[in-house]
Amino acid sequence: MLKGHVKNLLIIASLVTAGFLLQLTGLLDAEKILFVAREYAENWWLVVILILLQVLLFTFALAGSLVFWVAAPLYPPVISTLIVAVGSTLGGIGAYYFSSSITDEWVKKIENSHAYRILHKEDNFFTLFALRIFPAFPHSLVNYSSGILKVKLSHFIAAAFIGVGIKSYVYADIIYNLTSKASVKDLLNIPTIAPLVLISAITFLGVFIKYKLSHKDK
Length: 218
Description:
Blueprint: H1 2-25, H2 30-37, H3 44-59, H4 68-74, H5 77-98, H6 104-111, H7 114-121, H8 125-133, H9 139-149, H10 153-177, H11 184-187, H12 190-216
């Protein structure tokens, strides 16, 4: 038991160290990755690499969203949206399964998050979708919380692909039309995020009403 606990600690420590080194060396710098990627944008295998990079990063709760800042300037909105949606979903599945092996300390941290508490009460597609589509909501919290709670995998996958896809398309369209000169500020202004927030709020409201009605009948 103790040996397994130590093993898990070593795995987590290695991942944290790897993430720190990647940030320190600039290998996770979106601008640097984009500079290199531009030379190979016409090659089909770059799409595969960008998807696999997201899978790796999201699985281990690293900055998988940086791939969006590479794909959006390089490809038309529909293609970049598919890259981000597929990569985020597959990476989410990886995180879902990986989270079952994390240590008790990490479980306690996740249990204190809003995402965990929401998912603990309502495990369904619409709750997951509302979290995914909400602007700037951390996907890693949803991925790991879902894995720990063992939410229904079909709901998890569908919500990830659709939610991330809609949000990515809205942002990708802005970046592509601005010729990659958009910033985080441009993506988080009121006209951009208002529809996403509204969709998320309406979805949450529906979940809340359904929850109240189901408990009222009991």
